[in-house]
Backbone:
């Protein structure tokens, strides 16, 4: 997309850059120098894409592991609450567990 | 009328004796049933006698829930080790860590742990392993040319793992301090048969 064809002939290599929140088009030129610049930029883009994919894979793997632990964690938390409440305890304002007055242990 | 329907649906989207099977089914249904169970526990805590009856019934009628948790915990531990060391790689290191986990489990369980204590100890061991894995990943990424965002992500993940471990330790300490009477759960080898004594 960075190559522009002009009406009077010839291909110009350009690139868009963002500066102070605005997008500018920079004209690199034509001929072998422009070809070289295009190749370098393509290689950099491919590398950035590869890095993005690697980061996404890394994050996905971490999220999957965390999901496994989270599932066990919430099941055990529910079972613990089940045990405590059925034994006649209640949690005081999400803090300490207290025995409910006048209630027998199960 | 609509309110009544919602209330009745909240009270029993599933029969108590079917909860274990529903939880065993996994996925979205498990989350739904566990959400319902938590809401019943909330009501019981608030003093609803009917809900308390359901909670007590669920506690004694759901041995399968305990074994499901055990299976999930075993799988999570295996996945965590795979994540740290790779599948079928670094077998000596893997055996060493597994031995360390067993020692920790046995030390924390003590001589005669109740089934609930065993479950809570298993959770502590799993959370400890998660902390190690998260710290290791963070250290590895810091040594690589990682982005700031990725570094922060792993930092936050390590902090979450640490908080989870702290909660797990607190829960065991609470249960031991309060001396919850045990419901005996005998889980047969390979978790094929489960017997409960009330």
Residues:
């Amino acid at each position: 997309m960075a190559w522009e064809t002009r009406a009077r002939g010839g291909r110009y290599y350009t690139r868009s850059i963002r500066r102070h929140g605005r997008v500018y088009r920079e004209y690199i030129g034509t001929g072998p120098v422009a070809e070289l610049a295009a190749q370098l930029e393509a290689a950099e883009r491919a590398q950035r894409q590869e890095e993005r994919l690697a980061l996404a894979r890394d994050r996905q793997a971490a999220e999957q592991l965390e999901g496994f632990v989270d599932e066990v964690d919430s099941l055990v938390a529910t079972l613990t609450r089940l045990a405590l409440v059925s034994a006649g305890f209640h949690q005081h304002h999400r803090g300490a567990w207290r025995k409910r007055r006048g209630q027998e242990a199960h | 009328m609509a309110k009544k329907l919602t209330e009745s649906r909240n009270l029993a989207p599933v029969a108590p004796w079917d909860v274990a099977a529903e939880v065993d089914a996994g996925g979205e249904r498990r989350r739904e049933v566990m959400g319902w169970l938590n809401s019943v526990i909330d009501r019981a805590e608030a003093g609803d006698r009917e809900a308390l009856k359901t909670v007590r019934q669920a506690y004694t009628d759901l041995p399968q829930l305990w074994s499901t948790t055990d299976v999930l915990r075993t799988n999570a531990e295996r996945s965590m080790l795979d994540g740290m060391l790779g599948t079928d790689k670094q077998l000596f290191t893997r055996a060493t860590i597994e031995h360390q986990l067993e020692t920790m489990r046995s030390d924390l369980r003590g001589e005669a742990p109740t089934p609930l204590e065993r479950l809570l100890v298993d959770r502590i061991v799993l959370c400890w392993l998660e902390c190690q894995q998260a710290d290791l990943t963070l250290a590895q990424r810091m040594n690589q040319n990682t982005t700031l965002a990725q570094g922060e992500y792993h930092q936050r993940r390590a902090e979450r793992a640490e908080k989870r471990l702290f909660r797990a330790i607190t829960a065991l300490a609470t249960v031991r301090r309060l001396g919850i009477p045990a419901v005996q759960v005998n889980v047969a080898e390979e978790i094929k048969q489960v017997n409960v004594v009330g």
